[in-house]
Write a structure and sequence with these properties.
Structural class: mainly alpha
Strand content: under 5%
Radius of gyration: 42 Å
Number of strands: 2
Largest sheet: 2 strands, antiparallel
Distance between the termini: 57 Å
Shape: elongated
């Protein structure tokens, strides 16, 4: 162990612990100063780096580590072309929801009704037998019977309002019937003399309603007027409404839109992709300018059919432009799914990212996200949000999406799903697939500067907590949510929002219980809990009081410690982080779990309970016994810091006290290691344990007290502080006091007092306490401290006790009133009381009389 000389320490003074490292507020300076003082008392919150994020080599929906079965998730790779789009975009979106049967039982006709000719006669009991005794009905009679039958069917379906039926002569099309299954037309509607049937006439409002039809079926075989194909968008659109195209609209289409479609087709056939792209842009701009996008255009279906035929163009830029047009038309059903798949397929290649920054494709995607129902078009939404997720891997696109309120739109989706589940719907696999994409996108969006305020403003944190409660078993989803929280809880405001949520602790405990063996989930949830408990006393208490919380922490500790011991000496596969570094996943989990235990133990009510848990202390000691600080530095340092916090509680049931010999042995190994941080952490524990004489005697035999005196020359403020803390306890024993003077400790302490007192009054106070304990049996100041040391100490203490001299800071201009008051408070309350007593003792035992060399020879 190399130490800097005293001269070097003076040439390179250490920065005072309360001074800012950069531009910061005075309140922050005070906060950091108080935190530093709290750490010096023996209790400290453990700090660790955020879990590494593995490199994602391929852009896909769920990633290579997904736990989803292939049959429960849409594929990331698929073939897609014009044949996958419907020629006519139906007004009613496809739905997999099974319709409920109609609660209506038709009344059977009586014999009188049959015989009167109002209804067709009952069929024979044996349909294979022919009733030969009856004459054949005429064609007119057959028609009349059909009319009567249809009239009865209308009446039975209406059931309550027979007066609404205006006429029984109107033809009725049966629900879901094809052209060949349509009923024969009445004689009155046939042509006179030629025997041909007249065109089919739409039923009146009193007739049975048929489902919405395609645009082609609406125009009819002999119709001449174009009708609107507008229908449902999937969220309560006006299905079935029909508007006739005006002459002005027809003229606009023929003069403006149709020529562009023809040019697009011609360019496609000639494979002139540049021209095709330009004309596609022209068409989009025209439709957007005339407000003909969405479902407003009467020729919407015709335009879509033309666009679909162009999708086989082997150029992603053209495909993206066409996909934008399709989505802007608010397509539904299969066309919506195919369009979202197309965009997703293009977004999988990061070389295409610049194309998404052109035009308003991002706005169209976000609009599709807002307008698509997660329950009736779930698969389409998976690919839509999946595209956004992949695009958030691009830093430039992320900033654009944040500005376009992508976070807010995703928050609306989360709240919509939570509301539906709260109202009684069961969490489904399809909803889980949507949420996996949404949370993955939020994970990437959380990295931008303004995202934290947006996440808090639209209550994403609260929404994610509710999702945890509903989808705890979904490993992919829990991983994404834990990644979001591991990012945002690096900030105090997000930590506070999460800690204040009533179910957050229960939710995280549930995740740990459900996914104990998924290290990527456990490491992040543990990191989040460590952040929540780092500075929040209420969070420490609430987490510890949550049912099963500490038991699951110990269970995780045991499992991953056993895994680590098994893997020692073996070649284990390490995870490669985004920054290129390698991470031992098992060790990383142990680091995060131990950190939670360390932070919990800071609470004065929780600490003594954990300190009495022999299993916990045993696990901590096993870590130090099996790991080396040279290869597992963070794990070892976190473990020692946890032992330090637990050793602070000197209770009768303390496992640290019971196992103190074992504790001292593992700590001695760290003191002898060539690692200054490990030595400091070990000495922190010594400062607590040396309150017992048996420990002081053991360490004195190992010459630890002499090593501590040597550390006074280290030049490191915290090292000097810890050394002084332990030496105070050693000086309680009279047999240990001579060592201080033999190792030139008095002179070193005077130098520490001179160098650090004006910038660290707490450290100056510790120096005075050491000298006070050391001089407990003083008879002469010169004999006790040394003549020169006694004189220097007297002068220095008198100077430091003078207010004007002590508080005359060289950096006074940098300190505001709040900082000055704080600094004066530590001088008054911590330094002056012990320094005044020490100075009085030294002066009391000093003599101004000098002995005569030869009294008889004068």
């Amino acid at each position: 162990m190399s130490m800097e000389s005293n001269a070097q320490r003076k040439r390179q003074p250490d920065r005072p612990f309360y001074l800012p490292k950069g531009d910061t507020t005075s309140s922050r300076i005070i906060t950091e100063a108080k935190e530093s003082l709290n750490n010096r008392t023996g209790l400290q919150a453990v700090v660790t780096k955020r879990p590494s994020t593995p490199r994602d080599a391929t852009r896909s929906l769920f990633g290579a580590t997904s736990t989803r079965a292939p049959e429960n998730r849409p594929p990331s790779s698929f073939s897609l072309g014009s044949r996958h789009f419907d020629g006519a975009d139906t007004s009613r979106p496809t739905s997999r929801t099974r319709l409920q049967p109609i609660n209506h039982k038709p009344k059977l006709p009586s014999e009188e009704e049959v015989e009167s000719g109002l209804l067709p006669p009952k069929p024979p009991s044996d349909p294979n037998k022919v009733q030969r005794g009856k004459a054949t009905r005429t064609r007119l009679q057959q028609s009349t019977s059909v009319e009567s039958s249809l009239s009865s069917e209308v009446k039975s379906r209406l059931d309550t309002s027979p007066s609404d039926v205006k006429t029984v002569d109107e033809p009725v099309r049966r629900v879901h019937s094809g052209p060949k299954e349509r009923s024969s037309l009445p004689v009155e509607e046939r042509g006179e003399g030629d025997g041909r049937e007249m065109p089919y006439r739409a039923p009146s409002s009193a007739s049975v309603r048929s489902p919405p039809r395609s645009a082609e079926s609406r125009t009819g075989s002999g119709g001449t007027k174009r009708t609107s194909s507008a229908g449902s968008t999937g969220r309560g659109g006006s299905a079935g409404k029909r508007e006739e195209e005006t002459a002005e609209e027809a003229l606009f289409y023929s003069q403006n839109i149709a020529p562009l479609l023809e040019r697009m087709t011609a360019a496609s056939s000639k494979k002139d992709l540049k021209k095709l792209g330009q004309v596609t842009e022209d068409l989009y701009s025209l439709l957007q300018k005339e407000n003909l996008l969405g479902r407003n255009c009467k020729q919407r279906t015709t335009i879509l059919k033309s666009i679909f035929k162009l999708l086989d163009a082997d150029d992603t830029r053209i495909q993206l432009k066409l996909a934008r047009l399709i989505l802007a038309f608010k397509v539904t059903g299969n066309n919506l799914l195919s369009a979202c798949k197309l965009v997703f397929k293009i977004s999988r290649n990061e070389k295409n990212d610049p194309e998404f920054l052109k035009g308003d494709i991002l706005d169209v995607l976000l609009d599709t996200l807002k307008s698509t129902d997660p329950f009736s078009a779930s698969e389409a939404l998976v690919f839509c949000i999946g595209s956004l997720k992949l695009l958030t891997g691009n830093a430039t696109i992320v900033k654009q999406l944040v500005k376009k309120d992508c976070i807010e739109n995703l928050a609306i989706l989360l709240n919509s799903i939570n509301k539906t589940i709260r109202e009684g719907s069961e969490p489904s696999t399809q909803l889980g697939n949507i949420l996996v994409q949404a949370t993955a996108a939020l994970r990437n969006l959380a990295d931008t500067g303004s995202s934290r305020e947006r996440l808090l403003g639209c209550q994403v944190i609260e929404a994610l907590c509710l999702i945890i409660d509903s989808f705890t078993s979904d490993g992919d989803l829990m991983l994404n949510i834990s990644r979001i929280f591991s990012k945002v809880t690096l900030h105090t405001d997000c930590c506070t929002a999460l800690a204040d949520h009533p179910t957050s602790y229960r939710s995280f405990v549930s995740i740990l219980q459900k996914h104990q063996h998924k290290s990527d989930v456990v490491v992040r949830v543990s990191f989040v809990l460590g952040n929540m408990t780092a500075k929040n006393e209420v969070a420490r208490l609430r987490l510890f009081q949550e049912a099963g919380s500490f038991d699951i922490l110990l269970s995780l500790f045991r499992f991953y410690l056993e895994q680590d011991v098994k893997n020692q000496g073996k070649e284990t596969k390490k995870e490669v982080a985004e920054d290129g570094s390698t991470v031992n996943k098992t060790e990383d989990v142990l680091i995060k779990v131990i950190r939670v235990i360390a932070n919990l133990s800071i609470n004065e009510n929780v600490g003594p309970v954990i300190c009495s848990n022999y299993q916990c202390v045993d696990f901590l000691l096993k870590v130090l016994e099996t790991k080396e600080v040279s290869s597992s530095e963070e794990l070892v340092l976190n473990t020692v810091a946890t032992i330090n916090n637990l050793s602070f509680y000197n209770t009768k049931t303390s496992a640290i006290t019971t196992l103190q010999v074992r504790v001292l042995e593992v700590l001695l190994k760290l003191v002898l290691a060539n690692n200054m941080e490990a030595m400091v952490e070990a000495c922190r524990v010594f400062a607590n344990l040396t309150r017992q004489k048996v420990v002081r005697d053991f360490l004195a035999e190992q010459k630890i007290d002499r090593m501590l005196v040597t550390m006074l020359d280290s030049g490191n403020r915290e090292v000097v502080y810890i050394s002084c803390g332990v030496l105070i306890n050693f000086m309680v024993d009279e047999e240990n006091r001579p060592m201080l003077k033999q190792e030139h400790g008095i002179r070193k302490l005077i130098e520490v007092l001179r160098d650090f007192s004006r910038t660290d009054w707490e450290l100056a106070s510790l120096v005075c306490q050491i000298l006070w304990n050391y001089s407990g049996k003083i008879t002469s100041s010169n004999d006790c401290f040394g003549q020169q040391e006694s004189q220097d100490l007297t002068e220095l203490l008198a100077e430091l006790l003078d207010r004007d001299s002590a508080l005359d800071l060289s950096f006074k201009d940098e300190a505001d009133d709040e900082m000055t008051d704080y600094f004066e408070e530590t001088w008054t309350e911590q330094f002056c009381p012990v320094a005044e007593q020490l100075l009085q003792r030294i002066e009391t035992h000093q003599s101004d009389l000098e002995p005569l060399d030869n009294p008889s020879g004068s």
